[in-house]
Every structure is written in C-alpha cells, then in structure tokens.
Design a protein that fits this description.
CATH class of the largest domain: Alpha Beta
Helix content: 25-40%
Radius of gyration: 22 Å
Number of helices: 9
Distance between the termini: 49 Å
Domain N-acetyltransferase: 139-280
Strand order of the largest sheet: 7-8-9-10-11
Order of helices and strands: EHEEEEHHEHHEHHEEEHEH
Organism: Neisseria animalis
CATH topology of the largest domain: Aminopeptidase
CATH superfamily of the largest domain: Gcn5-related N-acetyltransferase (GNAT)
Keywords: Transferase
GO molecular function: acyltransferase activity, transferring groups other than amino-acyl groups
Structural class: alpha+beta
Largest sheet: 5 strands, mixed
Strand content: 15-25%
Pfam family, one: DUF3579
Length: 280
Amino acid sequence: MLVCNPYEVVIHGTTNKGKVFRPSDWAERLCGILSSFDKNNRLSYSQWVRPILVDKVRCVAVDKKLEADNPAMFRFLMDFAADNDLRVIDCKALLEEREEAAGQNQSDGRVSLAEAIEEKHAAEQKKTQEQMPVVGILREIMPEETVTAFAALSVLRSSLTDINRFVEQINTHQRPAGYRLLGIFEEGKHNAVAVCGFHVAYNLASGHHIHIDDIVTMPQNRLKGYASRLLEEVRRIGAEAGIEKIHLNVHVSHDRADAHRLYFKNGFEIMAYHFRCNTK
C-alpha cells in the first residue's frame, strides 16, 4: 500500500516517456544526500525526503515544507527531476491516478502500470543503445554556479549532505586557495553530469604540478567517455600553463577498479604509497 500524505510531492521513478529510471538504487542515493547517522550509528533518512515504492517502481517522496526550510535543497531535487525527465506528482494526484488505473485493470484485464513500463523499457533498451550517444558540453563551472556541481560530487563524497554548506565551502575556502571546477553539461539539464575539481600546487616532492581532488560522473551518464574528456582538459590546461605533471589519489578498494582502469587508460602510473594517521 502506498503511504504518502497531502504535504508531499513524489518524484516518480519513470520518465515522461514511460521509461523506468536507472540505476535501480537512484532513490536511495538521492535520499542519502540528506541522510545522517543516529546515535546508534544507523543510517536515518531526513524527515523531508524518503524513498518509497509505487507499484514496484522506486520513487522519492519530498515534503513540501522543505521548500521553506531549505530552498536550495528543494530546488536541487526539482532540478534533478527535470534534468532526468522524471515526473513530479502531488501525492493526492498520484493516489487518484493509481485508483483509476486499478479500476481499469480490473475491468479489462490489463497488466499493471509497473509491468507495462518494464515491458516498454525492455523493448526500447536495444534501440536506445544503438542511438548516437549524447554529447555534453565541457566548460568551467564559475563561482555563481557552484551549486550545479553538487549532484555529481555528492555521489563521490557521501559526506556532502548540505547543499548550502557545500557552496559556501567551495566558494569561501577552496576557490581562494586555487580550486577550480570543470563540468560537462548535457542539453536541457541544469546540473553537471560529470565534474572534475583540481588545483595547482607547489611542493618540494613534486614541484609545480596539478592535483586532481575530485572527478566523478553521475551513474546514469557513465560509459560516454566524460571522465576521459575531463582528464584531457586538465592536461590541456596544464600544458598551456607550462605544468608538466598531474597528480591524484585514489583508494585501492575493489569497488574503485573502474577508476583505476580509467587512470591507467589515460596515462597515469602508480608512483607511491599514501600514508595517513589520526592525531588522537
């Protein structure tokens, strides 16, 4: 049974063309941006945003009060829905829509909405894969549009849960220290689908070099070569400035294997161990 209240809107897990949105855990990922850990170290979703199922389709319920409590986050969620062509439905309207669909199914024996969507998705999947890939526009993300990098970077950095604090940290602390952002934007989308953050550094060990701090592509926009394009742009920027070396750190866990392959493919080598310790 669908449980939502009149104070919520639902970001439905189907596009306006009837396709089920991927990846399958998108709703949990989106809600995770506002989640936190309780006193028992268990993940707790925000009171404003939660994942729900509607006829076996993953969706996200957003409390309308979030618009007043955190306008930037509410706008981010609505932009996310618009960027990915997802339906945004008032909860009351969704309940009425489901009741109408259920009545029609009982009267004429038609399959459920979820089954119909899945069937259509399977039929269109091969055709979609054969279509020419979307070519995004690569450009620098300036201070007044830092917010457009939040969606992608929150996938890479799970600690990012406050969009306002994110913008403040980047613009107030990191940019003055030389941090720059590159983004790839697809037509009709407000947020960057791939982001690279880097800065120029000097030290005795490496001399004058570029250090890449962050690089990520949104899960639904991967396998389009965006990360390689970002790395090539950083390489070009470095060459124009007379900087010969680019450095980055990457974790060695098995779930980072795709990142390792990306860097090897783009000419990076493993040069050192990275050590760290706690102060207490």
